Structures are given as C-alpha cells and as structure tokens.
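Database export, one record per block. Field names are fixed; values are copied verbatim from the stored entry.
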Amino acid sequence: MAISVVMPALELTQETGKLVSWRKKEGEAVTKGETLLEVETDKAVVEVEALADGFLAGVKAQEGDVIPVGRTIAWIVDQGEAPPQDESPTAAAPISAAKIAHPEAVQAVSSGVEPPGAKARTSPKARRLAGELNVNLDSVKGSGPGGEILASDIESAAQSQTQTAAANPSSAQQQLESLTAIGRLMAERTTQSWTTVPHFFLAREVDATALNAAREKFAASAGGTSGVKITHTDLLTALVARVLLQHPRLNASYTPAGIQLHSEVNIAIAIAVNDGVIAAVIPHAHTASLAEIATQRQELAQRAKAGKSRTQDLTGATFTISNLGMFQIDSFTAIIPPPQAGILAVGAIADRVVAVDGKPAVRSMLTITLSSDHRVVDGAHGALFLNDLVQAIAEPQKYLG
C-alpha cells in the first residue's frame, strides 16, 4: 500500500517548507526511521524520517522547491507498485527557489483572479504580521487563491518598505534592520504567547552550594568515563524533570476541552543560535541519567548551531528551561512557549551575603523564576513546585544518586 510523503508542518504557524535535499533517489529502497529528506523551515534545517519501508516513487518536488505544508511530494510504495496519481488536478505546483526574488518572502501560486472591486481576503497569519510589521493591507496585492493576501505577501511588502527607506535616507531618521526568518518567528511566537496566555511569575533565591558540589562530583565521574561535560543546566534539567512528576499541573497544556496532563516529562532547553533562540528537547528527562542528559544536550546544541536540527529535536516539549547565568544575568522572567504551561528562568550563581542561623555569611546564591499559565496553574501550584525544586537543589544527591 502506497504511503504519501508530504511536506511536514514542523512549526505551529508554518505555511511552506523548502526542500533542501533528498537523501534517497527515485526507485531506491527506503527503511522506516531512516532520514528521507531535509526540509528548511523558518527556524532550522530539519531531517525528516521515512514513515514506512518500501521504495521511493512518484517524486514531485526537486531540491530548492518551496512547497505548501501538507502537499504530497512523493510516495513510498511496495516493490513493483505504481505510485497513485496526483491528489488533485488543480493542485498548485511547487515554487522553484530560483524564481523567488526575495528568499525570505516566498510568493504562493495563485489559482484564480480576484473579481474587480472585491476586497481581497487576508489569512489570519497575514493580518497579524501586517500589524507587527506596520504594513497597510490596502497596499498589498495578494498572491493566494482568489487574490487572498498571504503571510508571504506581508513579508514581501515589509521588505520592500525597508528597501525603500534605505534608498531614501532623508525620509527616515533611523536605520531599519530587516528581521531574519528566525527573528520574525520569535516575534510572532512571543507576541502570540504574551497576548493570549495569562502569565504570572514566582521567584525564589536558592543556596546553590550543594548544586556546585554535585556538579564537581558528577563532572569528575562523567569526565573520566565518557568525556561528557556536566553543566549546571544538565543538573537542573534532571532535577526539574523529577520534581515535575510530583506536580503534573506544571507538566500540562491548556486546551479548549480541558487541561491535558502529560505522562512523560520532555524538557526543552533554550539554546542561543544566530539571530535567535531554539528550544531543543530532551525526551524522557525524568528517567534519563545525568550523563545521558548531558550527552543529549551537547548533541542538540551542536546540531542547532549548525542549522541541522532534526524533527524530534524541536517537538514534544512539556516544560522549558532558559538559563542566562553564563551571561552573568542575575534574574529574569521568560515568556511561556505554548502549549506548555510553564518555563523556568535561571540566573547566574554568585556569592552573596545572606543570613545563616541569624548571622551574616557568604553563600553561592541562585535566583530562579517560574512563569506559569494561569489557566492551568494557580499561585499555590506554582509555589509548591518551587518549594520542592528548591529542596531538590539543596539535596541533589538525594534525587540523582
């Protein structure tokens, strides 16, 4: 039975994907789980795996084509089986990257002509982008079916405005810097989260003396066997994952039908890349050993910074940790990445004078700040989670062995 290979939706707001490369040729054998093709999204180049065993046939897209999400681009068939015919005789063809004037503003193929005097439809994403990029919808000509204005049309119009301003410096007092694809995506996601998710924040100061000692101990043992570098982020990932098991509301998602509780703890770690941040996921962090977490975190960071993240690297997170301690930031609040219910912001560990048994003493202190979705988590839930996490940081050996 033929299995369709479609352009995957790797991001919530993704409309198209660029086919970077085929790892298999027409007629070659394919094994379920092996990399079949590479797709470029606004965020990264992602490896897409084959969903079944068979042979690659009926390839409809070439490397460099930009294809709408959900479009069939090939088939995996049994030996001797012919691929099905096109899904629809009116389906729009892929767009060749060579025909795109602005790679960051992909134009979709129009399947109709807007009637004279009719007001063009505008996709929800395009309307939102128009507000964010200060683009007048009346000045934009849509390239979608029936003249519909797409997000790519807004991006193209915004880029044209930027180029016009740059060519006429007298008309603008300030220089405009064009947003990169990742920059635009971050702007969309953070705006969507901040305007639709009711955030609230809880902060705690933690004595990190035991955490420092645990890092030295585990770093020595791990370095001697596998050469893996243990970081504070690795320790916190392991501790947070284990504490989340006791607080399922923090490892949940809001849905219109109710609150979805996740049985697994998949921790996303914010990783800085060129022009943005990628949240790479460590699956089953609640059962992974510290060495496994450190190894995965290192591999995820290497792929993210090289622009070679895989599909599973970026999906399935149930909670996020963002650590800016290495940048000497004392504390900060982070914006929740939907559909997660929480994100933990971690500051720098620094020596401070604190009261110990009623007397001043110098301790290595750490500030952690929890951002929570108030539709899922209330103040008491968040406070109890932080209480248990603080206890885990004070006794990491108890949780990690």
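Remark 1: The chain has a mean pLDDT of 83.
Remark 2: The CA atoms of residues 271 and 278 lie 5 Å apart.
End of record.
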